[in-house]
Design goal:
heterodimer; A: mainly alpha; B: 7-stranded antiparallel beta sheet; 9 helices; 9 strands; disordered C terminus
């Protein structure tokens, strides 16, 4: 019965896990490997899972798997994911009061996201693509909800500034 | 609500992370503030551009299959009850489709050799009326023990065996210097016939019981023994009066040294 529950509550989020892994790892092969490892890890640990949000729980496992994989592979990893001064701080007020409503070009947005610091890219993905709540994001990346909010605001402000150039 | 307060709430407002009071305050402020309204619209447009510019992918079927096999479809790891259910189903299938377990000929040959080397008989008698009652109370079936002495197969005795964990009545006959073991079991096994290492195993069924004859006599003689046994056993009333009371057999006077093993 545990298997059926695992299938119903966790394996139904495989696509989300796959997309997160692709987002973090940057390519499909690495995403596939980490997803499989994460699924096996989740299956083994499922008996001890007592939370009420299997999706956030599973995505956190996928993320951890990606992190340790990236860490093993690349020493530069630490720098990309390191906390930068001001990264989670108050965003600079953008709002130059132009009368014309800005239209965002999708290609430009994609490029701008690519250039975001990794931790900011991550919250953008979890919020905008996976549509997770702040609480879920906090669970997935193991930070307080306040940090999620400021990091997300910071990421959006950075994107806007980039797109205004 | 001031514009400064409003700007701080734009993200949570659009992310639906504000409480109803904040939401209402925000809605009222936006009605009267074009600047904040524009900021909200821009933010909404950005979110939309991010979502629309992203191409989600699905887990490839092969990967999905691998993951299922590595987790929920994994045999024995699939949970106790699932395993039990499969086990029970397998047993049921076994019971219905394969009602009899096969006793391999080799097991019977091994048992035959074992007995020759050790305890061949529990009850030594050439009188079937001694041997047959001896089994009473020891096993829950009654084997046929025909008198075949006149055909060159005198009875030596009987013993209790366990083959495949089932009580087995073993009748010991003799053909000149050769011993013939007749293993008798009630129903639940399947015939295993064969010829190995100079020994021969033949099977037949009589009155719901399985009989295996094992010996190192020639296959022809063993077949003759099997045939004689089956025919005599099928007509016990005819055989009984003739030998009633006495086990006198033509081979009676034969020196006992001809028997390879008396005990």
């Amino acid at each position: 019965m545990a298997s059926q529950r695992f299938e119903r509550e966790v394996l139904c989020h495989l696509d989300s896990g796959y997309n997160l892994a692709r987002w973090l790892m940057g390519n499909e092969n690495d995403a596939a490997d980490t997803l499989q490892n994460a699924a096996i890890r989740a299956f083994k640990g499922f008996g001890r899972f007592r939370g009420d949000d299997p999706k956030a729980w599973f995505l956190a496992i996928v993320r951890n798997e990606c992190m340790s994989s990236l860490r093993k592979r690349n020493q530069a990893w630490a720098k990309e994911w390191s906390f930068e001064e001001g990264m989670d701080g108050e965003p600079e007020a953008p709002c130059p009061e132009t009368e014309v409503m800005r239209q965002y070009d999708r290609e430009a947005v994609r490029d701008a996201i690519e250039r975001l610091p990794k931790p900011q890219r991550e919250v953008i993905f979890l919020r905008e693509i996976e549509d997770l709540s702040y609480g879920q994001i906090a669970e997935v990346i193991s930070v307080p909800v306040g940090t999620v909010m400021s990091r997300l605001a910071r990421a959006r402000a950075t994107l806007k500034l980039e797109l205004e150039k | 609500m001031t514009c400064e307060e409003s700007r701080k709430l734009i993200d949570p407002y659009l992310d639906q992370e504000v409480d109803p009071t904040q939401q209402e305050a925000m809605r009222k402020h936006l009605e009267g503030c074009a600047g904040c309204r524009k900021a909200v619209e821009e933010q909404r447009a950005l979110s939309q551009a991010i979502r629309e510019g992203y191409e989600p992918s699905q887990v490839p079927a092969s990967l999905r299959r691998q993951i299922h096999q590595a987790t929920v479809d994994r045999p024995k790891r699939g949970g106790f009850w699932l395993g039990t259910a499969f086990g029970a189903a397998a047993v049921l299938l076994f019971v219905f489709l394969w009602p009899k377990a096969t006793v391999p000929a080799e097991d019977l040959v091994n048992r035959h050799i074992q007995a020759m080397a050790g305890r061949l008989i529990d009850v030594a008698s050439s009188d079937r009326h001694t041997v047959k009652p001896w089994f009473q109370g020891k096993i829950d079936f009654s084997p046929e023990i025909p008198d075949l002495a006149s055909q060159g197969f005198p009875l030596v005795g009987g013993r209790l065996d366990r083959i495949f964990n089932r009580p087995t009545a073993t009748l010991v006959y003799r053909r000149r210097a050769h011993i013939i073991n007749v293993f008798v079991s009630a129903g639940e096994t399947r015939a295993g016939e064969g010829d190995l290492r100079g020994f021969h195993v033949r099977h037949f069924a009589l009155h719901d019981l399985d009989y295996w004859v094992v010996s190192d006599v020639s296959p022809e003689e063993l077949s003759r023994f099997k045939k004689a046994f089956a025919e005599a056993a099928k007509s016990p009333p005819a055989a009984r009066p003739a030998s009633s009371g006495t086990a006198a057999s033509p081979q009676g006077p034969r020196p006992s040294s001809a028997t390879p093993s008396g005990r």
